[in-house]
Amino acid sequence: MTDPAYFLYHSIGQYPGKAEQMAAALGHFTDVWGAYDDAQWPKMLTARAEFLQLWADLIGADAGTLTSADNVTTALYSVMGGLGERLRGKRVLIAADCFPSLHFLLAGLAPRMGFTLDTVPLRDGAFWVEDDDMLAAWGPDVGLALLTFVTSTASHRPDLARLLAHGQAMGSFVGVDLTQGVGIIPFSLQETSVDFVVSTTLKWLCGTPGAGIVQMRADLIAEVTPELRGWFSQDNSFSWDLDAFAYAPDARRFEHGTPSVMACVGSVPALRWHAGQTGLLAHNRALTGAIIDLADAAGIRITTPRNEGQRGGSVMLQLEDAPARVDELRGQGIYADARGTILRLSPGAITTTEHVGRLFDALRK
């Protein structure tokens, strides 16, 4: 298929020239890493520094408050291990429509760390957890609330300002998983002050796996001591004194073993490309609006908020045979995916109005 219709930005994002630019970046990595000299670490840590700066610029993070992580789950584990005893005897609050990997982690940590994991359920027949239900479950005994910026199964956006105000009143730590929205829905730490965020460079940012990030407000960083630590947790990573370990004074304390430099280097072209774009959200809104109109006309149930202020960059449709439809669409050069009966559609930079038309022509057949 010479003109694939791509609706998978909730999974792996694409942009024009991605393969060539990534190949060049990774080719440079192999040239440096395979050279018979001693310049590997200085050159690659400098390259990773660009990755971190592009991320800091993207979300308005202050200097020294952000570093890389292997993925969102390890990023959260580093945070949890840092908060440690502060959560003992408390509740950790999370919505049932969170990203499952994070719930798996928290459920496993709860018995050892001494907190109670409280999962706010969906209402009968609902596709996302209501803000009112989160607030009703959120009392002063909540030590930490982990919020989802955009959900992966309904593309629902909570009212972060309302939830954060309540969390501040309750004296809770509040973290946000940005994964499914960052890169398409604007987010700035200068406007939305939270205790920490975790995310990845996959999806709307079009980067590689293995290039996650963890960010925490500066005053809290100074108070946490992550249990997952290693040589890169130190101010001087190349200090070998076994009796002189000391955490780095900034976000580097969330690092541990050798960082995934190659993933960061491979993601820099995508972050550079993204930083130069201005019309991504408007393009997405035009296409998601067309998807909603065509779904309504076809009598297909929409399981995503219709209000743009409550919606991420995806539109989900309910089809009883969604997995089979995904296979049929693939055979026609149309790429989407399914979670149970939910068909997930995420149009991005390389998706066009003609692609949306082809999608619905195929669905009607």
Which descriptors apply to this entry?
365 residues, seven-stranded mixed beta sheet, four-stranded antiparallel beta sheet, 11 helices, 38% helix
Radius of gyration: 21 Å
Strand content: 5-15%
Percent range for helical residues? 25-40%
Q: Give the CA-CA distance, first to last residue.
A: 19 Å
For the secondary structure, the number of strands is 13
Mean pLDDT: 97
Main sheet: strands, sense, barrel = 7 strands, mixed
Query: Which of globular, elongated, flat, extended, rod-shaped describes the shape?
Result: globular
**Protein structure class:** alpha/beta
Q: What strand line-up does the widest sheet have?
A: 2-8-7-6-5-3-4
Structure characterization notes:
This protein is α/β, with parallel strands linked by helices and 365 residues long. Helix content is 38%, strand content 15%. The chain has helices at residues 18-33, 40-59, 72-83, 100-113, 131-137, 160-170, 218-221, 261-275, 280-298, 322-330, 353-364; strands at 5-6, 66-69, 91-95, 116-120, 142-148, 173-177, 196-200, 212-216, 301-302, 315-318, 334-335, 337-339, 342-345. Strands 2-8-7-6-5-3-4 form a seven-stranded mixed β-sheet, sandwiched between helices. Strand 5 (142-148), helix 6 and strand 6 form a beta-alpha-beta unit. Helix 1 (18-33) packs antiparallel against helix 8 (261-275), helix 2 packs across helix 8 (261-275) and helix 3 runs parallel beside helix 4 (100-113). The longest helix has 20 residues, at 40-59. The chain is globular. The two termini are 19 Å apart.
